[in-house]
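Researcher: Here's the sequence for the chain we discussed earlier.
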Amino acid sequence: MKAEKRKRTAKAGRKPAGTAAKAGSANVAALKVKKILCIDYPAHNATVCCGQYSLRLGTPHAAQWVKISLNGGPWLECRPAVGYWWYDWRNAEAGSFTAEAVAFIEGEEVRSPKRRFKVAA
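Model: Thanks. This is the structure I predict for it:
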């Protein structure tokens, strides 16, 4: 029975069961993983309360540092905690804002897409 199954598998041009994972694992090592950084919160076009707000940034890679800029201002250092990077924004005033982040990951700077949001009065 097993010999017959092998013949049918070979005839159909398929690999025997159990060999696909081994063959594919060599290809996985050759893939280059794209480094990403995103601003998780606030969400795009969200409205947050004025006063104090913590912006959350995420990256699936180990970053040496992460910084954020609000409305094109200076780069502000973020702090790591519980698997994310955070910027504790104090005295946030009402208005429209654009945030952009940059991180140093595996020897190169990686930028996030810009995130627009509003702070309510």
